[in-house]
Model the fold of this input.
Amino acid sequence: MNNNKKCKKKIIPPYLLEYIANNCDSNDKKCILNTLEHVNELMKKSVKEDPHPPKDNSIIYNKKTLPETENTCSSSGK
Done:
């Protein structure tokens, strides 16, 4: 395997890792299986953690939130 730091930052699709693990030497296979296990653990954690709790988007009428204006509708006819 290539130990270049640049390559370590790339994302390798799981199906490709599985293919390589099935068709490579034992050292590479061990490394790839560890990577797959690590990814699976991260995915399990991401399901448990909800980074964005649901927001209540319902609109509730509250007259206190409306601006108090006097004489907004003038019907004097002048």
Observations:
- The helical segments are 5-8, 14-22, 26-48.
- Residues 11 and 67 are 53 Å apart (CA to CA).
- The mean pLDDT is 69.
